[in-house]
Specification:
The complex is a heterodimer of chains A (487) and B (481). Chain A has 487 residues and is α+β, with helices and mostly antiparallel strands. Chain A is built from 15 helices and 15 strands. In chain A, the strands form four sheets. An eight-stranded mixed beta sheet of chain A has the order 5-6-9-1-10-11-12-13. A three-stranded antiparallel beta sheet of chain A has the order 4-3-14, with no helix packed on it. A two-stranded antiparallel ribbon of chain A has the order 2-15. Chain B has one domain: Amidase signature (AS) enzymes (Alpha-Beta Complex), CATH 3.90.1300.10. In chain B, the strands form three sheets. Chain B has an eight-stranded mixed beta sheet with strand order 6-8-7-12-13-11-9-10. In chain B, strands 1-3-2 form a three-stranded mixed beta sheet, sandwiched between helices. The longest helix of chain B has 21 residues. Classes of the chains: A alpha+beta (487), B alpha+beta (481). Chain A: Pfam families: GatB_N, GatB_Yqey.
């Protein structure tokens, strides 16, 4: 039996506004507990919410980036439930009239194919606080603490249609959302700090089947890698059950990254009745045409447009252009290197090759890269003007990464300058020929067509003698002259 | 001195006939001597009041006195007062001392008013008799065996008993006008959004509106001029400058068109009450007004719609009282569920629980359309009734309450009978219109209120219309004390 996985994602993105969605309190991450919570965030009696215009602007920008309809009128509703880190006893969110309506984006996969994913809607809502269950108080075993710093922080919840068919597609979609929000500057998109959080609705069905299977909701899978793994392991679980003749229970499941498994989060799956109703403290917000048009004209260049420009302006392959535009910081890094070195193709190769490998190995972002764009441009310049060979360049790159300074400093200090001096190379060629009587004999007796290949041995010996610094083109020219003279 | 109106006090203070400290001290003494009979105050802030009065006297002496400088008032205990317990009439907030002032409190402070304390009220403003207060019922100064009306019964009784010349109050379905009617005081519920709700403990956010209770329309105008105004902290505020509501009081009402809705004189209205209201309408004819019979066809749906919408909003508004951050917390909770259940079970009274249950039910899946949505449709129809009426008339008049004050305990066992107390007042809240109640006579020595409903933002006009009646009649001067 061939199974098809069907995935829809709900992504929460924390907006990087200075203050909260409905209060003037700050939103900085990592402040001491309850230092960024005012009377409104604490839901003190008589306090009232005032919508943050910046949050609306950010959400509308996101909508434009998703090619979505912008809700001309958006309405906040109360979602009622009790929880200690939800001070009002309801979350102010949007339901029937969200700020961003249906839209569509294109995702790019590793095999160079693309696919459209439809956006169901995106809405503005406030975040809850945090309950801290461990070691909150020195005394007081079993006590829980409440930190309301995060309570009221603006979020957009981005709900896709169930349009993804593999974990890889889900990851590509999530990365696309990440690109868009960071390009727009509306969120730092940092999954490790919870600025971007993902829930996945996963179901499976036999290929060709029209109806969707029963889905489960995977909660809080908070890295790209875990999204990939969680979806895979959940799909396998569902397939195993169905192949054994069982059926899937619609439920919320938690991904355990240590055990790489999902498990049921709620023992009894009673449907929660949140009793949504329009929040009477907030009037519907109307965005007029002018406002949206102004936003549209102020939109920055987005990943797809940038990739297209990179292909055009720098003659990059589609794959390279996609790779280099996924993160704004990477794209900016690339443009600096390309412009300073004048070698966009080499810049792209180095960035998708050595630099990507380095960042991967060190598990750091491009902003933290020990090799700066200026460093890389300098290195490429030396490569281009023949000061170093591409082999030496790799060595120089590693040295820069180790903090030895820029390319010129490393080349100078380590004496890596390529030797193009004919006299010195001629000497080395003579020595190698003198010490390789057997190989010279073979060369002379060999068929004309096989000789170029046989030169490799001599070149290797000479490079070894020069510690890799001899200019290969010069070696080739002199060697050929000398060997041919012996024929 | 306790008989003085706010206008007279303003004059007396400026003419140095007496000081703010003198009148404040006298009223504080009077509260101490007499309020045991009425239970109109929950908290008296004597020390703070004398300090404020002293400061007011200094400003008066320096010639730097704002409009209400040195005038003693009281606040309904629904308005948050920085450093002073704000109970909202509930055990839930018996220990709650807010670190901030309500906008109304700030505004009156800016105007120089001196606050004597916090007045009693139905718990969370839910009630029409002040019997749901955790602090016991307010007794009507006209007959202490009878209710003062509610929910602003404390403010109304304190004014009627001449413990204070004016007080703040709130009105969600009649909570200013009905107690004013039952205590022979004058009360005004402004247009929804006229007065900021910031710092006012919410009952039903789309209906709640603060206003004054005083001894006459002129004094209400003085208080409203200070209370109203723009406030960015309240998104539903109309962001209108208050202006001076006393400016138009003396305008002639010659040619005024008064709409008299036939639905306000039907079954359920006490015959003697009806007679007093008819007398008042005749008085208006004498003043040159014209009576026009009108119809507000959806009047009978106002109470049912209100008792869906108000509890629905309240059920969410009161969720924050969970024993976690402030207010009542049960002792030794076993777990979170126990903390919630016992804190709320112990902290809320019967009527509050009833409305939370009703509201929760009305919003539940499967019932939402039948109740909440239907009620919102009715609300729009009621609003349309008024909009159409105001195309033909300038103001609308009728009774405020169906009968004079009833006995304490008489309607406690019958919530629906209690809810019908607000049958003539609720529709204006649903429509967001301003409404007033003013004294128009008595039945067996119990006061009767005349209600005047105005068009949106037409407070100046209804104050003018009420003031002209009070220039021609003395009902508002009759005193229980």
């Amino acid at each position: 039996m061939e199974w098809e996985i069907v995935i829809g994602l709900e992504v929460h993105v924390q907006l990087a506004t200075k203050s909260k969605l409905f209060s003037g309190a700050g939103t900085r991450f990592g402040a001491p507990p309850n230092t960024q919570a005012c009377a409104v965030d604490l839901a003190m009696p008589g306090t009232l919410p005032v919508p943050n215009a910046e949050a609306f602007r950010y959400a509308a920008m996101f909508g434009l980036a998703m090619n979505a309809e912008i809700g001309r009128r958006s309405v906040f509703e109360r979602k009622n439930y009790f929880y200690p880190d939800l001070p009002k006893g309801y979350q102010t969110t949007q339901l029937a009239e969200p700020i961003v309506g249906p839209g569509e984006i294109e995702i790019h996969l590793e095999d160079n194919s693309s696919r459209k994913v439809r956006l169901h809607h995106a809405h503005l809502e406030e975040d809850a606080g945090k309950s801290l269950h461990e070691a909150v108080f020195e005394s007081g075993q079993g006590m829980s603490g409440i930190d309301l710093n995060r309570a009221g922080t603006p979020l957009i919840e981005i709900v896709s249609e169930p349009d993804m068919r593999s974990a890889a597609e889900a990851v590509a979609y999530l990365k696309k959302i990440h690109s868009i929000v960071t390009y727009l500057g509306i969120s730092d998109g940092d999954m490790s700090q919870g600025s971007m959080r993902c829930d996945a609705n996963v179901s499976v069905r036999l290929k060709g089947e029209k109806e969707l299977g029963t889905r489960t909701e995977l909660k809080n899978i908070n890295s790209f890698r875990f999204v990939d793994k969680a979806i895979k392991v959940e799909a396998e679980r569902q397939i195993d059950i169905l192949e054994d003749g069982g059926s899937i229970v619609q439920e919320t499941r938690l991904y355990d990254s240590d055990k790489n498994e999902t498990r049921s989060m709620r023992s009894k799956e009673v449907a929660n009745d949140y009793r949504y109703f329009p929040c009477p403290d907030l009037l519907p917000v109307e965005l007029d045409e002018n406002y949206i048009e102004t936003l549209r004209s102020d939109m920055p260049e987005l990943p797809d447009a940038k990739a297209a420009r990179f292909r055009e302006q720098y003659r990059l392959s589609a794959y390279d252009a996609d790779q280099l535009t996924q993160e704004l910081a990477t794209a900016e890094f690339f443009e600096t290197v390309a412009k300073q070195s004048g070698e966009p193709k080499l810049a792209a190769n180095w960035m998708t090759g050595e630099l990507a490998a380095l960042l991967n190995r060190e598990e750091i972002s491009i902003e933290q890269s020990p090799v700066s764009a200026e460093h890389l441009a300098g290195l490429i310049a030396r490569l281009k003007d023949g000061t170093i060979s591409s082999k030496i360049a790799k060595q120089v790159f590693e040295a820069i990464a180790d903090g030895e300074g820029d390319a010129d400093t490393v080349i100078e200090k380590r004496g890596l300058k390529q030797v193009s001096d004919t006299g010195a190379i001629e000497k080395m060629v003579d020595e190698v020929i003198a010490n390789s009587a057997k190989q010279v004999e073979n060369y002379r007796n060999a068929d004309e067509s096989k000789r170029p290949k046989m030169m490799g041995y001599f070149v290797g010996q000479i490079m070894k003698a020069s510690k890799g610094q001899a200019n290969p083109q010069v070696i080739n020219r002199i060697l050929k002259e000398k060997l041919d003279a012996l024929l | 001195m306790h008989q003085l109106t706010i206008a007279e006090i303003i004059r007396g203070l400026r003419n140095r006939e007496f000081s703010s400290v003198e009148i404040t001290r006298q009223l504080l003494d009077r509260i101490e001597q007499r309020d045991g009979n009425y239970n109109s105050f929950i908290t008296v802030t004597a020390e703070q009041a004398l300090q404020q009065a002293g400061a007011a006297d200094r400003r008066l002496a320096e010639g730097d006195a704002p409009a209400l400088c040195g005038v003693p008032i009281a606040h309904k205990d629904i308005f948050c007062t920085s450093g002073v317990r704000t109970s909202c009439g509930s055990k839930m907030l018996d220990n709650f001392v807010p670190p901030y002032d309500a906008a109304v409190v700030e505004n009156l402070q800016k105007a120089g008013a001196v606050s004597l304390g916090k007045t009693n009220m139905d718990e969370f403003a839910m009630g029409s008799s002040n019997e749901t207060s955790y602090y016991g019922p307010v007794k009507n100064p006209w007959d202490t065996d009878r209710v003062s009306g509610g929910s602003s019964g404390g403010s109304a009784a304190a004014v009627a008993a001449q413990l204070v010349p004016g007080a703040t109050a709130t009105d969600t379905g009649g909570s200013i006008r009905q107690p004013a009617a039952l205590t022979n005081t004058t009360g005004l519920k402004p247009t929804y959004g006229r007065v900021s709700r910031w710092g006012m403990v919410a009952f039903a956010s789309s209906l709640d509106q603060a206003g004054p209770i005083a001894r006459n329309a002129g004094d209400c105008a003085h208080l409203l001029s200070a209370m109203a105004g723009p406030d960015r902290r309240d998104s539903t505020n109309l962001q209108r400058d208050a202006g001076d509501f006393t400016a138009d009081l003396n305008r002639s009402i010659e040619g005024l068109k008064i709409g008299v809705p036939k639905e306000y004189f039907g079954e359920g209205l006490n015959a003697d009450t009806a007679a007093r209201v008819q007398d008042a309408l005749k008085e208006y004819e004498k003043l040159g007004a014209e009576l026009v019979e009108i119809s507000l066809p959806h009047t009978d749906l106002a109470v049912p719609a209100y008792y869906v919408i108000a509890p629905a909003e309240a059920s969410a508004n009161l969720s924050r009282f969970d024993g976690v951050r402030y207010g009542h917390r049960c002792e030794n909770p076993a777990d979170l569920r126990d903390l919630y259940m016992r804190s709320r079970g112990e902290g809320f009274g019967e009527e509050v629980k009833r409305r939370i249950l009703v509201g929760t039910y009305a919003l539940s899946a499967g019932y939402y359309d039948a109740y909440y949505n239907k009620a919102q449709q009715v609300r729009r129809l009621i609003k349309r009734d008024f909009v159409q009426a105001f195309e033909k008339v300038d103001v609308i008049m009728g009774p405020t309450a169906p009968s004079p004050a009833f006995g304490i305990g008489a309607k406690v066992a019958d919530p629906v009978a209690m809810y019908l107390e607000d049958i003539y007042t609720i529709a204006t809240n649903l429509a967001g219109l301003p409404g007033m109640s003013l004294p128009c006579g008595t039945v067996n020595n119990l006061p009767v209120g005349l209600q005047i409903i105005g068009n949106y933002l037409d407070e100046a006009r209804i104050l003018n219309v009420a003031h002209q009646y009070q220039q021609a009649t003395d009902w508002h001067k009759a005193s229980a004390a």
